[in-house]
Every structure is written in structure tokens, then in C-alpha cells.
Amino acid sequence: MKIYGSIVSRASRNAWAAEETGTDYEVVPLDFRKAEHKAPAFLAINPAGKMPALVDGDVVMSESLAINLYIAQTYGKGSLWPAGAKDQARCLQWSMWAGAELEPVAYGRLREVLFKKESERDQSVLDDLAEKAKPLVELIAQALKSGQFLCGGAFTVADLNASCVVEYLVRSGFELSPWPAVDAWYKACTARPGYQKVQDMRAAAIKAAA
Amino acid sequence: MITLYGKAASRASRNLWVLEELGLEYKHVPYDHNKGETKNPAYMAINPAAKIPALTDGDVAMTESLGMNLYLAQTYGAGKLWPADALGQAKCIQWTLWSATELEPPAVGRLMQLFMTPEDKRDMNQVQVFAERTKRTLDTLNIALSKSPFLAGNAFTVADINVAAVAEYLVRTKFDLSPWPAVQKWLTACLERPANQKVMQMKVAA
To answer: ipTM score here?
Structure first.
């Protein structure tokens, strides 16, 4: 399984999923600054020129959260992909929710923080997005009333796909502490060895590029 | 028994399309969230956000219209809306996420500005920004549909429904699709399917 994209990009989500399922994988780094994601070799894999993309035998696909559903359904039985229709439906639901509802808000905040100097940041944009984030985080809190994770007792792709987007909120300075259950859940997700290993890969890549 | 919550003239229409394509038996509870019909404890146990649509099926309870369609296709659509091959299945999941994250924000954004915002409050600059984003998504779609007649290969699948149901917003807002002929041909074929025509009738009737 080959994951195309810089480990600093959304490709990190897919590396995390691969780690959780114990699947052999290789990250093929693409240098954003050299526009390698717009080069013909990559456009043959994803004509939209967006990373990440996955190549696994005959399978060629894009969309990071979808790639994680594919990895979970294909290699994650007994780990990321739960048994039983009830929990599988939740994995689909939370993955769509993470992409459609949470990511626009969370990434909006992160973009403001990452790509602008402190003096150029628009605090009203950050505040507005924080207000929009609150009912979304509240929805996670509601779901966690029936267990430590989104499908109950076990960590699944629902948690992976939601927490990797919550990470943007946290990195943008959004406080989870008013929702103790969400705070504990996020800490449990990001304490996992698979996540930690990918963080180390990211840190090494950032250091090498500096 | 499958129960679908949400009036036909909402994103529930996407789920009605899949249910009709698969010929499944289902109960339709046409809640209108604007009339406060979803703010009852029984429904909020299914969807605490009190939004429509939602679906129950045995012990399954879920929200997110496009996710619900994936569930229905994976559970009841083998050989029909859910392809047998791994690549086709991966494409169904990919295009579903793409539809929600790439196509829907500019398509709905434009619809909201043009249809739901009074003319004196309309931001034509925003309309233009949404149109430009839409064009880039149509480029991507046109490349895919130049290689195969449907998004997951040679057969119509849930990938086509999940993208066409969102692209329909562009038809409604009279977005000129002629620069993307493969998209135009595919979208017409999708929307003309008897199952979608039946859902369109349900929307008009309601």
C-alpha cells in the first residue's frame, strides 16, 4: 500500500490508519513547495492534484477520510472496522460528519493560525469559527455518553476520522476542557502508539525541511 | 424495517432515491425541522442535532444523508448500487466524501445566495467565488467521466447518486454545464432515472 503525500499533510491521517491496522505501507512524500502534487506522475494518480492519494494493487483513490474507510473496511476487521451493522453505520456517519461538518470549521481556524502572522490574524474570524465549533464538539460529547469511544468501548475508524479533524481545532488554540469527556477521548485517541509514531514522522520531516 | 425521517423536499430526497433504486420497503416520516417537528425526545435520541434526514433500521440509527446512502448501498445494494470489485467500492467511498467536502459547499453556497437571500442582501462577489470553486470541481468530475461512463466504472452505483444528487443544485440554479460535456451527459442520465423521477414527484406533491 502506497500513500502519496507529505506526512505533514492530510496523508498523516492515512499513515495513522495503516499503523492501527498493522498493514505494510510506504509513504511516498510529495514536496508541496516543488509542486510535486501538480507533476504528471502524480496527476496520473489523482487528476485533481490534491494529496493524499492511495495506491493499493488495483485500487487508486483520493479523499483522506475515504481512504481511511477503505483501509478500515479492507484491513481493519478486528481493529478499526467494528463487527455489527450498528457500529459500522456509526463509522460511516462520523466519517461523513468529520468531513462535511467539522472540517470546514476546524480547518478554517487552523488556516488563520498557520498561514498568517499573529499581527495579521483576524480575531473575529477565529471567534466566529469557535462559536460554530461549540455545538459540534457538544455533539461528540453527547455521543460519548454511551462509552469512551464513538462506537462504545473500542477505538474505531469513527474515532480516528473525527479526532484527526478535532486535532485542527486543538492546534488552533480551541480549548476542549469545557467538555471533559471529549477532552479525555481526544487524549486517549492521540496517546495511541499509531498516532504517536506518525507524529514522530511529521516532526522528523519538518526538521529535515528546516 | 427501514424508517427514513425527513420531508422529501430536503436532503432526505437523496435517501429516497437510493431506497427507490433498490426497491426496498420503508416507512417515510416526513418531518419538517423548520416546523419544529424534529424537536421531540424520541427523534433527538436518534439525532441529538435535531436535523433531517436520519434513518433507523433494526438497531442501526444514523444521520448524514450521504453516509446513510453508503450504508444502504453496502447493506442492501450488492450487485446493484454497491459494486463487487475493490476498486469500484473504493471509488464509491471516495466520491461520496468528495461530494460532501468539495462539491456541496460551493453548490449549496451558491444556491443559498441565489434562492434564499433577498436580492438587496445578496453578495454577488460570494456568488462568483462559489462559481469559480464549482468550476474546479466540474473539471475533476469531467476527467473522471471521460474515462468511464459512471463514477465507479461501467455501471451506475451509489457514487453516481451521491454526486448527482448534489450536482442537481447546479441544475436548479441554472449553472451552465455545457463546458463540461461528459458531466452534462452523465448528470442528465442520472437524473432521468425512474427512481429519481419518482422522488421528484414526491417533492412536488409535498
So the answer is: 0.96
